[in-house]
Structure formats: C-alpha cells, structure tokens
From TrEMBL:
Segments traversing the membrane: none
Source taxonomy: Bacteria, Pseudomonadati, Thermodesulfobiota, Thermodesulfobiia, Thermodesulfobiales
Pfam families to which the protein is assigned, alphabetical: tRNA_Me_trans, tRNA_Me_trans_C, tRNA_Me_trans_M
Keyword tRNA processing included in the entry's annotation: yes
Keywords tagged on the record: ATP-binding, Disulfide bond, Nucleotide-binding, RNA-binding, Transferase, tRNA processing, tRNA-binding
Full protein name: tRNA-uridine 2-sulfurtransferase
Domain tRNA-specific 2-thiouridylase MnmA-like central, first and last residues per copy: 193-252
Enzyme Commission code(s) on record: 2.8.1.13
GO biological process: tRNA wobble position uridine thiolation
Length: 337
C-alpha cells in the first residue's frame, strides 16, 4: 500500500510542485485547501490544480480561527507597540495544526507543504535550512510546536525556487501568467492601511534631537529601523529609533543609534536543546549573528557578539546552530537593550 500524505495546497506554484513531486514518487496525495479568508479565485485554482494531478481534494474552513489567531492578534500587538509576524503566527496556530489534525483524523502517514526547508525524524524532529539560501523559510517555522511537525516532509528543501519555477512553467504554461503570492495574504492594500482603517488617523509628531521635524498619522503605523516615507527634510538619513504610543510620538535618529546589544525573547519553542552560544536571526533574510544565551524567569536573554540593527519587539528570533544549518527553536522578541 502506498504511503499517504496530506499536502496543504494554497493555489501557488510551491505547494503544487510539492504535491506533484509526491505524486510522482508514488504517494497517495490528498490536497487540503485551508480557507483563511474569502478568495474564490484562489480556491478554484487550488481545486483545479488538485484535479490536474488526479489527487483527492478537501476543504477546511479556518476563517474564524485565522481571524482570531492571526489577524486580531497581529492588530492587537501592533496597537500595544509591537511589530508582529503574521506568517509565523499562521504556521504556529493554524496551518500545521490543521494539517496534522486532518492527517490523524484521516489516518494518513504524513503532512507536507511547499516550504523550502529540510526536516529529519529520528528520536526527535530536526529542522535545517533549505538548499536555496535566498528562499530558505526555516525562520517562519521557529514557533511551530514539534508535535505538529513530527509527521512532516518537505520535498522542496533540496531545490531552488528558480528551478521549481522553471520546471513548472515548462510543463504547465499557465504558471507564466500566475503571479507569486504576497507575504501578507489577508492584506490587499497594505498592513498600514489595515491598521489605519481599524483605528483611524491619530496625528502626531516625528522628533529628532528634541525637535519636531515632521508630522505623522499614528505612531502605531511605524516600526523600528524604518526610514522610508518619514516626510522630514533633514540633511541626513533618519530612521525610527523608538516609539511612544502614549504620547503618539515617533523618535528618529541616525543609523548608528539604532543598533542594540541584547534582545529579550518570550513565548519560547525549541526543537533541540539550546546551547549557551549559538546564532540568532532577528528578521527574515537578516544575517544571523553569534549570541550568548541565558534564561531568567521563563524568558531568554540573547547577548549579541556584534551589535544588530533595529531588533524589533514582536518579531521572531530564530536560533540556529553555529554552522548556520540547524534550526534550534525560536520565540517572540519582547525587549531590547
């Protein structure tokens, strides 16, 4: 009997190629479309792609769960002064939990998605960066509990995005006319516009060296390290150094003042025991840096060996082995120094 796998199919090229590969390798494939928000066009494409493979297609409505665990949580964090990572929350609370649930309920063997990562299962689950350094998505899995990944396989971990795109466009010409999915799937006009529509305009001030240098429409619309669209006319390039949401003020400074030596991390999740020294990555595609780790009152303190530009509360800190290959775990940044 063929091994059976539940593939999370989004209607995009990566999840389709995952299902395609597994089908070619002899797996009995179920394509599961997890409905996060109303998008009939994407749903129909996912159904068409499943039919094209001759795979079983199932639908799971997660709109209410997604709104609570991802959209509302992200908005609430933003209004509390954090810069959230909705994609990581979705992987942690929605996608992999549902895939594992459907696998278990349907008595299938594995789950799979189109993530560019590698995973190995022995006595424990170990996750490694994907072969494609530019596309590696291990950072976004740092918060996912290992119980949801214990039956996961990731075929794309050994490929580059460029290769996947070329192979699929050669075999199925229609992929040339389908654009890549956006980072925030539930936002059409931009995350700032979503927050502004939710909370309205709150006029405030940009300050640099205790001087008002421009006005803004709400401190919650900005994040640490941001430099574009600040509206000032200073002769130097300025960045958001800090925020005061109570006063609705955004403090600007030159780049060198935005570097930090330490982060405080909570909501911890580990795949392997964290050594006293490892690498930490504080945003997607950022350069990992060496840090020393210590714990205090269920929080993790990571002291950088070299200062890091604008680590941002609310973002994910992903920890890696010193050779920068194995993902050891992660958490949410709640403070800096």
């Amino acid at each position: 009997m063929n091994k059976r796998v539940v593939v999370g199919i989004s209607g995009g090229i990566d999840s389709f190629y995952t299902a395609f590969l597994l089908k070619e390798r002899g797996f009995d494939v179920m394509c599961l479309y997890i409905n996060l928000f109303d998008n009939h066009e994407v749903f129909l494409r996912a159904k068409m792609l499943s039919d094209l493979l001759g795979a079983k297609f199932e639908f799971y409505d997660a709109i209410k769960e997604f709104k609570k665990e991802v959209i509302d949580r992200s908005i609430n964090m933003t209004l509390s002064g954090y810069t959230p990572n909705p994609c990581a929350f979705c992987n942690m609370k929605i996608k992999f939990r549902i895939l594992e649930k459907i696998r278990s309920d349907s008595n299938y063997d594995y789950i799979s998605t189109g993530h560019y990562v590698k995973i190995f299962h022995n006595s424990t689950t170990k996750i490694f960066r994907g072969f494609d350094e530019k596309k590696d998505q291990s950072y976004f899995l740092a918060l996912v509990p290992s119980i949801y990944l214990k039956n996961a396989i990731f075929p794309l971990g050994n490929f580059t995005k460029k290769y996947v795109k070329r192979v699929m466009e050669e075999k199925y010409l229609f992929w040339k006319d389908i654009s890549s999915s956006q980072d925030l799937c539930f936002v059409k006009k931009g995350y700032k516009k979503l927050i502004q529509d939710k909370c309205g305009v709150k006029f405030g001030k940009f300050l640099y060296k205790n001087r008002v240098v421009a006005n803004h429409w709400g401190s919650y619309l900005y994040t640490l390290g941001e430099s574009r669209g600040l509206g000032h006319k200073e002769p130097v390039k300025l960045y958001v150094e800090s925020l005061n949401h109570e006063k609705n003020e955004v403090y600007l400074n030159t780049r060198e003042f935005c570097y930090k030596s330490l982060i405080v991390v909570a909501d911890l999740n580990f795949f392997n025991k964290l050594p006293n020294r490892c690498l930490v990555q504080i945003r997607y595609q950022a350069k990992p840096v060496i840090c020393d780790i210590h714990f205090r009152e269920s929080k993790l303190y990571a002291n950088f060996h070299e200062k890091v530009f604008a680590p941002t509360p609310g973002q994910i800190a992903s920890f890696y082995s010193l050779d920068n290959r194995e993902l050891l775990g992660g958490g949410i940044i709640i403070g800096t120094d």
